[in-house]
Here is the input.
Amino acid sequence: MKPNVRPQAPYFSSGPCAKRPGWSVSALSDALVGRSHRAKPGKARLLDAIERTRSILGVPADYKIGIVPASDTGAVEMALWSLLGERGLDILAWESFGQGWVTDVVKQLKLPDVRKLEANYGSIPDLSAVDFARDVVFTWNGTTSGVRVPNGDWIADDRAGLTICDATSAAFAMDLPWDKLDVVTFSWQKVMGGEAAHGMLILSPSAVARLESYTPPWPMPKIFRMTKGGKLNAGIFVGETINTPSMLCVEDYLDALKWGESVGGLKGLIARSEANLGVIAEWVENSPWADFLAETAEIRSNTSVCLKVSDPWFETLGDEDKAAIAKKIAGTLEAEGVAYDIGGYRDAPPGIRIWAGATVEKDDLKALLPWLDWAYGEVKSTFAKAS
Ligand SMILES: Cc1ncc(COP(=O)(O)O)c(C=O)c1O
Here is the structure.
């Protein structure tokens, strides 16, 4: 039966993600447009974004927080290019974005001493095999497989290398143990539903010490440069950005942070994502056709929830048909105005991906789930008739 209740906000994309509840363009009416970001009020807004980020995420006072160009990718690559090469590297990858960082260090930086710890979609590499005498690069939450690290317990306290963590779909939704993390990056358009453009780069004192004691052998583009004359360019970390930021995006991020504070800060934001995951988990438990792609509950993402089709009929199909069916489910729901952008990532196994971050309302997820059952039934019967 076709359901008759639709989600009020059918926005379940994994990035850019849903705006916060109640958002409208009027949230940007006080944006500092037409002014220099280097004028006093411009710098004050940028510093406010940094300090509210620190306060909500509980970033230690001696960690540096910078707003940098090119979204999360910019922040990660700035870190990789600036810090790596001083020692060997262990790099972990279990989905597309982690694999992208492997490509960077192997094919672009051509680091000579890299150990790749990899796993297939749905699982995670053996975390006990990581050697913390080396630098370590990993993604906290693999957005395209819906698999996250369970916690930070596997990370050594007394490490000699640096831990560099891409946390773009984890920050504001999962507990990040700052004492275990030397570099953390994320972008604004994920859990907080901000606008894409800028990346956040957070550095521990050890990461800063590396920057000030080590100069990589390769050329460093201006937008990656974090030091001047061997010293940290401290201005970057108080809002003196390397190049021009969008003050509209800054205003929107400030709006998102203020909303985050209003729902209870980090605890409240995590609780919202967890509750959203709970709604989906309850449905999956009773579903005859859908299951989590993540193999176990402890590595299951509470933001980018990836589902596979577990119907035995589906298993008998070839890869092309499987992909076509998954695409059709997403397309059918989009055409109904029920769910936008829930097709699985292009490199992931065929399935659907539902964003469950804090800006998504639990009731909208509840309304969506019967539509998934309906769409699967429709697509299956159409497909079975045609073949
Ligand atoms: C884990 C992860 N890393 C990196 C990126 C790239 O982020 P951006 O588009 O903000 O550069 C994404 C985007 O979805 C992601 O999920």
User: Anything to note?
Assistant: The chain has a mean pLDDT of 98.
